[in-house]
Amino acid sequence: MGLTSHSTGTNAIATSLTIQKQSPEDKIIALAGNPNVGKSTIFNGLTGMKQHTGNWPGKTVNNAQGTYTCEGQTCILVDLPGTYSLMPHSAEEEIARNFLCFGKPDAIAVVCDASCLERNLNLVLQTLEISSKVIVCVNLTDEAEKKGIQIQTERLSEKLGVPVIPTVARNRKSLSALTHAIQQMTKQPNLSAYHITYPEPVEEALAALVPVLQRKVEDRMNSRWLGLRLLDFDDSLLEEIRFCLGDSFLNDQEVKESLDQARALLLKAGIDTETFRDLTVSALVKAAEGLCTDVVKMERPVYQFLDWKLDRLLTGRLIGYPAMFLLLAFLLWLTITGANYPSQLLADLLFRFQDFLSAWFQLLHAPAWLHSMLVMGIYRVVAWVVSVMLPPMAVFFPLFTLLEDSGYLPRLAYNLDKPFQCCHACGKQALCMAMGFGCNAAGVTGCRIIDSERERLLAVLTNSFVPCNGRFPTLIALISIFFAGVSGSFQSSLLCALILTLVILLGIGMTFAVTWLLSVTLLRGIPSAFTLELPPYRRPQLGSVIVRSVFDRTLFVLGRAAAVAAPAGLVIWLMANLTVSNASLLQLCASALDPLAGLMGLDGVILIAFILGLPANEIVMPVIFMAYLSQGTLTEPGSFASMKSLLLSHGWTWITAVNTMLFSLFHWPCSTTLLTIYKETKSLRWTILAALLPTAAGILLCILFTGTCRIFF
Predict the structure, then answer these.
(1) Which of 37, 110, 584, 687 is the most exposed place for a label (fewest CB within 10 A)?
(2) Could you give the angle at the alpha carbon of 501 between the alpha carbons of 497 and 506, nearest 5°?
């Protein structure tokens, strides 16, 4: 089960549509639906742990597949990307459309939100144009009932001609009716489903085109739907048709003549391409509205008073932005205080294991240099990265997922949409930027949700202007040592969180500035429109939050960081232990960087530490202490008080601390993020630019701040 790893180039289309079965008797079920309708909850409830997650071959779009058994039948459930329409404007919508049309699933379950059924029926009606083997899953019926909404599912089923199943996805028992309906659908022939009637000129054009298409495509796809898309001049569909039906179909003389005839009928009626799209979309909307008028009964207004009050606060002009500021400060405070103790415990555990490794090397009588290189070099760096990086991520990512599940993140994007629009960018970039606080690599991956390639590039190139949790240790240490105090009290931790919030706001401001600069120079263009849904506020599922944040985000990012930290440990050990004229390579490189560092208010040791911290920003401060103490291995800095004493003895002042914080905030992304940028953009040029932009900003700010301080202080 799952997709092959060989699908690239021209084979990407075929393999993206083909799900490998373990048995010929297995049934393939497509799970489609709008975002925020509980589709993932249904998928998890049906498949449990029997899941596989990856990317569609040839696409940077996530897919999830899983298996479940119903009445002795094994079903492969394919969770399609959430989409509002099968008239594609993004890679996600293309994937959903292509799989439904060309993948030939045995059944399609379309999940709808019971509290806003009319909008969701748009996707249902489009899916019915492709296939009649559809089951409509009306989910979140409990929330709809709380809002006074009653849906007559049996009447809706009669009108659509397909099963309509009410569910509450959180209650797995309610899914049994859905699996039974899916099972029955896989055994039935094609049903006579709901048929959308378009305006008369459109129907006349289809009447001239569809019979010819029916003879040519037979049962390989729905000829009426294909005719609509050909009349719509859907360029994204041509490559899929070329692969599925062959060039002979597109070049067939009879098809060309009938298509020209249909277009002539439309032009005669004064219908051009844009008008045709408006007419077809309007017909879908009116059909959905008519269906809902008959089957949906509302006892009171849908918009609950509590939701209205919360939105007045969280998206209001006066309170919306301060609320975001306070929420960010609160999350950072929770991350700082919640990660300190686990980080220390994890460090103690990993460094105790280091002692075990050392004893094992002594038992084997291994050479001292080999022990030093492998244990004190490679292992020690990896241990540092894991102990410093894992606890903050384990706190931050669940908190981020809680905001996502509760419905606040769409409000965040709503608030920041106008500033990003002023930068000629997309409001969805706010979500990618928020993910970057946990990990810039995850933030770059999250840029896939942006439809426009230009705006997606803007988000990718500027994501590193907000600090990831790998930079937090350096920022927190310097804020605590020089500005907030080292007592560890509630007041000092709160002050540290507030100062850190101000630092992050500086990063957000630079994100807006650089986004605007790129949008008026290298990446000029007009901001695209996008659909932004403000879902109802919901109580998050803690179990699902923990699983998703730990497995999908924390461990994924940690694995990448640890993989690049190991070779970094070897490089650091070599530079600290290889000497030239009684000076280590680390000291020589630091001396060479002193002139540039002096202009920036730093020293060469600080700059070389940032360079060596390319694989993982967590090791910047330990490398600084290692160089100052002239040790050949990464050192444990100890308490903040001892750290402050050491830094002051090497000429640090509050100006040095501020410049180090500025450069920590604005410098090249870590190697994990750069690798992710390259994978997402497939371009070395954009990857290099993504590294140069924050670095240039950091150097410039440090020089300006240092020069200003030298004038006034």
Answers:
(1) 584
(2) 150
d(CA 455, CA 686): 13
Question: Do 204 and 348 sit in the same domain of this protein?
Answer: no
How many structural domains is the chain composed of? 3
| Buried residues in 414-440 as b, exposed as e (16+ CB within 10 A) | bbbbebbeebbbbbbbbbbbbbbbbbb
Report the 3 state secondary structure along 519-536: HCCCCCCCCCCCCCCCCC
Are 480 and 622 part of one and the same domain? yes
Shared domain check, 204 and 144:
no
289-293, 329-333, 558-562: lowest mean pLDDT where?
558-562
**Residue 56 within a domain:** yes
From residue 39, how far is each of 42, 105, 328, 401, 618 by CA, in Å? 5, 17, 29, 16, 37
Same domain assignment for residues 165 and 221:
no
Residue in 47, 10, 282 with CA at minimum distance from that of residue 178: 47
pLDDT of residue 331: 82
Burial 674-711 (b: 16+ CB within 10 A, else e): bbbbbebbeeeebbebbbebbbebbbebbeebbeeeee
Do 428 and 373 have their domain in common? yes
Specify the pTM: 0.71
Segment 650-672, tens digit of pLDDT: 899 999 999 999 999 999 998 88
Q: Taking residues 307-317, report their average pLDDT.
A: 81
pLDDT digits (tens, 9 = 90+) for 410-435: 888 888 888 888 898 888 888 888 88
Residue 137 lies in a domain: yes
Q: Which domain holds residue 354?
A: 320-524+553-712
Q: What is the token pair recorded at 13?
A: 């289309």
Q: How many Cβ atoms sit within 10 Å of the Cβ of residue 243? A: 17
